[in-house]
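pinging the channel bc i need a second pair of eyes. not urgent but kinda urgent?? the chain im working w is below, pasted from the shared doc
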Amino acid sequence: MRIGLLIILLVSCISAAQTPKRITGKYSNPTLGYEITVPEGWAATPDDQGGQERGFTISLASGGTISVFGEANTLNWRAPIDGIRHSLGLEKCDSTRQQATGFMRMGRLTATKGHQFCGDRAVELLLTFHPGRGPIYWITLRTTAQKRAEDEAVFNKLASSFQLISAQ
């Protein structure tokens, strides 16, 4: 009897450990000094690199994803456009590549926006720097060209809800 109970408890713990944490509503990352709201009706899963949580990813109904994260400016970009150009340049593309850059708001901050079409794939990047010498913040949409407008609505809601908080 005790062995059966112990097995049930062990299986429950393993199942709970394998269930990814779901993020809904307001997400705060005091380590990197930002918060952002996951739009109503959507849930995200945290992204952690080596134990430090930097942000999250939303899986979209279209099959696309939106990633939100902060990180140190380890490549010492002078301006967000440098990061956008670098990241778009890393995207693999075996067909004709169409790219453009511009500006957009991320909450109260001005961010640089870049997008690229490669065949049927669409990538949209938004990057802003913390005022001063702090972290940098990314929002990345990966989807298809056909679903871009639909998925961009969630991307835009995320961007508008971004705000800086006191870093800890």
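so Strands lie at 25-29, 34-38, 44-49, 52-59, 65-71, 97-106, 109-118, 121-129, 136-144, 163-164. and The chain has three helices and ten strands. — does that match what u expected or am i reading it wrong
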